[in-house]
Design goal:
Number of strands: 0
Shape: rod-shaped
Strand content: under 5%
Helix content: over 70%
Oligomer: single chain
Largest sheet: none
Number of domains: 1
Length: about 170
Amino acid sequence: MKRPSWITAVGIIAIILGVLGIMGGAGNMLTPTVIELQQEMFSSMQEMMENEPDAPVGLFRVFERFLDMPPWVGTWYVVTGVLKLLASGFVILAAAYLLQVKKQAPLLFYAACGSRLLVAVLELVPVFSGSLWGYSTLSNAFLGIVAFGALLLVAATSDKRAFAPSAPAPQTEN
């Protein structure tokens, strides 16, 4: 049986999203370091401009508020980054199985999309930290929820006859 077009479309989109997820997971893992560097940079700038009469004091307050977050949030970013890397790798593997039309591919793909959806939901937690930085992750988390939810919906509702074991070839008599 020829591979249905939904399998090709879902598989390719899932691989692309999986690769983007791996890059996003690496970014999540680096977030605490980036925030520390930005805090140092803005502190240095503020110290340099303290004696300036035209110093943008309000701007520094905004940056302080943006970069101020509870200590657990940095750890949360690292943990969700690792989980995102693992779940995205799982999505790529499951999508490859889907493209190869392996018998176990649909169930594997459901599990992979489900794990990636769970990670996207976990990425929403920093929003509730009261930190403005936490809100910056809102769009990425919602994009993950919508994209993997759509892939899961398409895969779950599409025809799976291509994954059924093929009937044995008829025996010929000699």
